[in-house]
């Protein structure tokens, strides 16, 4: 029997979609599977083992760069989210005023320039400052990460602000709340899901960055991604797969959390 | 005494001032750690290279000349820099190829998601976004593992007898393109889906009522309606592909350079910072042209639909 005619159907589209989903996940799945390989190869399966996870855990360099990555990501995410929240409050729910468009362009600028160009620019700029001040700590990396994280925090927070009800704030003002009280008791709690989304996204974005970090870092400031990039140029053992698996779990965990928070909001 | 109008004016002015103060930290950080340094790159592109990297503070247009030309060391004549041209060409070719392939695969995928029942759409969309938020380096590493000579793809090809020898895929242009299609596919699907979600299926029904074939409906009704999504997706894929650095340096193996690698080289072994700066500005200019074309196009289609 012929299937009933569906106006939504397009020949072959479902097949291609299935191939796409499979192709998106297959390489990641294989990478994760070989993390559990008992042998030293990432091509021949020699049985199940957790030895590479143990090896990664006992590798002091891996632990060191991981902690550095987490520190930078935490600092950049918090700073970017705070300043982005302020900027979002300043650029929404208002009649257009002089400089508003300029602000939009400015805040979203890091999204529009290829990463390699920003990386080169920061290398030049920060190397001058390093020479001039003698300071070569993590501050440069945190500043750079904060800058490119700002738009990722700004966008969800702005979206949240724009869909928020203004009447509650007006009611608070009518009841003699000071602007600060209104913000603290009304605006901030309502805005919280947007802020949380901003925090999580910026944390993941900062954790993932390779290019800018690779150019800005001083000696001995490898983060987990730049360390992995260096290791990829040598002989690869399943230890890389094990590190990647843990890294993936963290990112996917945060994004899943984000998904459920935004779902509850709707 | 101040009139009500004047009072309102002062209040509005104070509001604008407060809004500037409130956004100042974000603007300042971006100015110091993103936009400002870009201007320094422009300055550096007009200086002479220092012997051990960095620059000498003297005006020179050599860097800009050597973006496209090279000076013969013996007789000082200028000729086209073949090495640079071939890298430009590879970058443009691979970026365009990546855009086209992601469109070819992304269009049906986005359509598939948009035609699911409403509750399921969110889940499918989530499945597309997960890879997008996972580390680019790890995803590239995953591609490296499967297309290596000892990787799964070659194993399957050897086992089924399709080939006798493993096919060398890694460290070729093909590998770079596969890698970029893989990592940037979600960037194509998301905007495509956004415009397909709003697709009015009554128009498609009308098309079938008027005896259109499936292909005709696709070409004459669906495609024109989702064109803004196609353009947005293409821009989103083309820009990072053109400036790609991680994917070509892992999958291209140091021989098949793209623009991003050429730029990096000038700050590493090349020790020619002004040339690196000039190449960066060139890349940025191309990206800006693409973005402007997109903004103009988006404005046009809004007017037409509005």
UniProtKB/TrEMBL annotation, chain A:
<dbReference type="GO" id="GO:0055085">
    <property type="term" value="P:transmembrane transport"/>
</dbReference>
<feature type="transmembrane region" description="Helical">
    <location>
        <begin position="190"/>
        <end position="207"/>
    </location>
</feature>
<comment type="similarity">
    <text>Belongs to the binding-protein-dependent transport system permease family. CysTW subfamily.</text>
</comment>
<dbReference type="InterPro" id="IPR035906">
    <property type="entry name" value="MetI-like_sf"/>
</dbReference>
<feature type="transmembrane region" description="Helical">
    <location>
        <begin position="12"/>
        <end position="36"/>
    </location>
</feature>
<keyword id="KW-0813">Transport</keyword>
<feature type="transmembrane region" description="Helical">
    <location>
        <begin position="242"/>
        <end position="261"/>
    </location>
</feature>
<dbReference type="Pfam" id="PF00528">
    <property type="entry name" value="BPD_transp_1"/>
</dbReference>
<dbReference type="GO" id="GO:0005886">
    <property type="term" value="C:plasma membrane"/>
</dbReference>
<dbReference type="InterPro" id="IPR000515">
    <property type="entry name" value="MetI-like"/>
</dbReference>
<keyword id="KW-1003">Cell membrane</keyword>
<dbReference type="InterPro" id="IPR051789">
    <property type="entry name" value="Bact_Polyamine_Transport"/>
</dbReference>
<feature type="transmembrane region" description="Helical">
    <location>
        <begin position="111"/>
        <end position="129"/>
    </location>
</feature>
<keyword id="KW-1133">Transmembrane helix</keyword>
<comment type="function">
    <text>Required for the activity of the bacterial periplasmic transport system of putrescine and spermidine.</text>
</comment>
<keyword id="KW-0997">Cell inner membrane</keyword>
<feature type="domain" description="ABC transmembrane type-1">
    <location>
        <begin position="66"/>
        <end position="258"/>
    </location>
</feature>
<keyword id="KW-0472">Membrane</keyword>
<keyword id="KW-0812">Transmembrane</keyword>
<protein>
    <recommendedName>
        <fullName>Spermidine/putrescine transport system permease protein PotC</fullName>
    </recommendedName>
</protein>
<feature type="transmembrane region" description="Helical">
    <location>
        <begin position="70"/>
        <end position="90"/>
    </location>
</feature>
<feature type="transmembrane region" description="Helical">
    <location>
        <begin position="135"/>
        <end position="155"/>
    </location>
</feature>
TrEMBL record, chain B:
<feature type="transmembrane region" description="Helical">
    <location>
        <begin position="20"/>
        <end position="47"/>
    </location>
</feature>
<keyword id="KW-0813">Transport</keyword>
<dbReference type="InterPro" id="IPR000515">
    <property type="entry name" value="MetI-like"/>
</dbReference>
<keyword id="KW-1003">Cell membrane</keyword>
<dbReference type="GO" id="GO:0055085">
    <property type="term" value="P:transmembrane transport"/>
</dbReference>
<feature type="transmembrane region" description="Helical">
    <location>
        <begin position="167"/>
        <end position="193"/>
    </location>
</feature>
<keyword id="KW-1133">Transmembrane helix</keyword>
<feature type="transmembrane region" description="Helical">
    <location>
        <begin position="94"/>
        <end position="114"/>
    </location>
</feature>
<feature type="transmembrane region" description="Helical">
    <location>
        <begin position="273"/>
        <end position="295"/>
    </location>
</feature>
<feature type="transmembrane region" description="Helical">
    <location>
        <begin position="123"/>
        <end position="147"/>
    </location>
</feature>
<dbReference type="InterPro" id="IPR035906">
    <property type="entry name" value="MetI-like_sf"/>
</dbReference>
<keyword id="KW-0812">Transmembrane</keyword>
<keyword id="KW-0472">Membrane</keyword>
<protein>
    <submittedName>
        <fullName>Spermidine/putrescine transport system permease protein</fullName>
    </submittedName>
</protein>
<comment type="similarity">
    <text>Belongs to the binding-protein-dependent transport system permease family. CysTW subfamily.</text>
</comment>
<feature type="domain" description="ABC transmembrane type-1">
    <location>
        <begin position="88"/>
        <end position="294"/>
    </location>
</feature>
<dbReference type="Pfam" id="PF00528">
    <property type="entry name" value="BPD_transp_1"/>
</dbReference>
<dbReference type="GO" id="GO:0005886">
    <property type="term" value="C:plasma membrane"/>
</dbReference>
